[in-house]
Design a protein that fits this description.
Layout lengths: L28 H20 L6 H8 L3 E4 L7 H7 L13 H21 L6 H9 L3 H23 L20 H18 L14 H21 L9 H9 L4 H14 L13 H7 L11 E5 L31 E4 L1 H5 L7 H5 E3 L15 H4 L9 E3 L13 E2 L2 E2 L11 E5 H10 L4 H13 L10 H11 L6 H6 L3 H8 L1 E6 L13 E3 L1 H6 L8 H6 L13
Antiparallel strand pairs: 1-3, 2-8, 4-5, 6-7, 9-10
Helix pairs in contact: 1-4, 1-6, 4-6, 6-7, 6-8, 7-8, 7-9, 8-9, 8-10, 10-15, 15-16, 15-17
Length: 553
């Protein structure tokens, strides 16, 4: 799969690093480059290969922004994820088998690259002249970022992982390590990467990882582990919270993190786009504004996709109306749908509401303004339907329902999406900076005023107001759940719970004696906010992996 370019086929013919032997690869500059691309490929596969259950989808479903959805006659696995309750779908013991395997395959590729890179006779001038912008230092930085990103997302999901820094034949045979040592690896990889990576790449190498991506991810990592382990009052299984925080204080300080964020703000050249509505293609089309494009100044890091060589964002097909095309929005399978309370509680003057949620009752077909979308038809086969779909990554179509991507036009039956997946936006950097007290009021106001207009009065900056602003800014971007969790497990459980009688929905499944959506606080608490480790992996580990509490069969 292509990762480093959006429009070239030459990266397709790459022999993956994990299929080569120690004796048959890393012999030429070209093979080194192929190995680097293989690490990017692994990250793309991790994002897209898990069917319905990939990181962006489940991050939304576990939050208070989305319901599980699916078809009204489908299995209840989305509801088990949404309610943190394996008893709802007891036969589903391997929800995340593919995500787990792809994460460790990618980590293995990164380990191989890092092991071999020092022994290779690098010629930076030659590599750079190949048009691939590859130097020894920058390549190592890119790979360390990818390894750190894979480990961080996996720690968020599962909390207890093997620590693997050498090439291994079977990650499942490695024992789970103390979480503090995993976070130490993540932070040290990112710290090293910031000193190795380029500050930018030319436009024909968009999607390559820069030092500012590493700095932004490092801030996100720091805020997550200091929050989750520092603000959770309950005991967390198999981890000493205080010991972890004390240990990590010796690895990185808050002052260092603030320095990284300040560097992005002062030196990166990144900035907010003027119009929030322009950041995603389908929403921009619906609003009648120009799409900012994938290479816009707000994007600090995104995982690339491209239609020329078919690297599509497969999971996007899960979202949207089931079997029903509503131009400019493509059809989907009805998973990961919007929760009505989010829409109802949102300030109607905030344009981010319409940019983030597609309200079937209120939006009209832009190609025929007299005909509203058919709410009954859109929700006919969608479980837990509330007339809302998460909008940002819905596929764009033309008036006939043909998929649109730049100059490319597909067909109505296409379920692909070639939009990039944005991992870090500049708005996130500004709000993280405000949270850590870096020009807090000014950085907070920049984000609010982009939404409401430059004349909007200041709102007092506080932790509560920053978290509320983050909520509105990042709906549907796989950030909200982790923001809740880093406020402490109890905080997250209180935000996610839906007490009886619950929320009335169309096509609700009978769970807990009601077809309304009910989420029990004690279920969130019982799992520590973590997810199910695949039972298949536990069985294969010969006793070295243990299931997370609350997810046993």
């Amino acid at each position: 799969m292509l990762l480093l370019s959006n429009c070239s086929d030459k990266f397709l013919d790459i022999y993956p690093v994990d299929r080569k032997t120690e004796a048959t690869f890393f012999k030429t500059q070209e093979e080194v480059y192929q190995t680097l691309v293989g690490c990017y490929q692994g990250m793309n596969r991790w994002l897209n290969n898990g069917g319905n259950w990939v990181y962006p989808i489940v991050s939304d479903i576990m939050s208070d922004d989305a319901a599980g959805g699916a078809g009204k006659s489908d299995y209840l696995l989305p509801q088990a994820i949404d309610r943190f309750d394996p008893g709802i779908a007891p036969a589903e013991a391997n929800i995340y088998s593919t995500m787990w395997a792809d994460a460790f395959t990618t980590i293995n590729r990164c380990n191989t690259f890092l092991k071999k890179t020092d022994a290779f006779p690098w010629d930076d001038n030659s590599a750079f002249a190949m048009g691939k912008y590859m130097t020894k230092a920058a390549s190592e930085g890119e790979v360390r970022f990818i390894r750190a990103y894979m480990y961080f997302c996996s720690m968020q999901m599962w909390g207890h992982l093997p620590l693997i820094t050498e090439t291994t034949e079977d990650a499942g045979k490695e024992a789970q390590e103390d979480p503090k040592l995993i976070y130490e690896l993540i932070v040290n990889d990112l710290k090293k990467a910031t000193g190795l990576l380029r500050p930018s790449f030319p436009s024909d190498a968009s999607g390559r990882i820069t030092k500012y991506a590493a700095e932004g991810l490092l801030a996100r990592v720091y805020l997550f582990y200091t929050g989750y382990y520092g603000k959770t009052q309950a005991e967390l299984p198999r981890v000493n919270k205080g010991e972890l925080l004390t240990y990590m204080n010796g690895v990185i300080s808050e002052a260092e993190v603030k320095g990284y964020l300040t560097d992005i703000i002062q030196n990166s050249g990144h900035d907010l786009m003027d119009n929030y509505l322009s950041l995603w293609p389908a929403g921009a089309a619906a609003a009648g504004v120009g799409y900012a494009g994938e290479y816009n100044k707000e994007v600090i890091f995104a995982i690339k996709h491209g239609y020329v060589n078919g690297t599509s964002m497969n999971w996007v097909s899960d979202m949207g109306a089931r079997g029903y095309i509503m131009p400019p929005y493509g059809r989907g399978w009805g998973f990961d749908i919007g929760n009505k309370y989010v829409w109802d509680s949102w300030d109607t003057n905030d344009p981010r509401r319409n940019a983030s949620l597609m309200n079937v009752k209120e939006e009209h077909n832009l190609f025929n303004d007299t005909n509203p979308y058919n709410d009954t038809e859109a929700g006919r086969d969608v479980r837990e339907y509330q007339s809302l779909f998460l909008k940002k990554y819905l596929r764009e179509t033309d008036a006939s329902g043909n998929e649109v991507y730049g100059s490319y036009v597909g067909n109505p039956s296409s379920m692909s999406s070639y939009t990039d997946y944005i991992v870090i936006r500049y708005a996130d950097v500004l709000l993280m900076a405000a949270e850590l007290g870096i020009d807090a009021q000014a950085n907070f106001d920049k984000v609010r005023r982009r939404a409401y207009g430059s004349s909007t009065p200041s709102k007092i900056v506080s932790q509560e107001n920053i978290m509320e602003e983050r909520h509105r800014e990042f709906v549907g971007e796989a950030i909200r759940y982790w923001d809740l969790l880093r406020m402490g497990l109890e905080y997250a459980a209180d935000a996610i719970k839906i007490e009886a009688p619950g929320i009335p929905v169309v096509n609700g499944a009978l769970i807990y004696g009601t077809t309304n959506i009910v989420i029990k606080r004690e279920q969130v608490m019982s799992t520590s906010g973590l997810s199910q480790i695949p039972e298949q992996q536990i069985s294969l580990s010969e006793g070295k992996l243990a299931q997370n509490e609350g997810w046993s069969k």
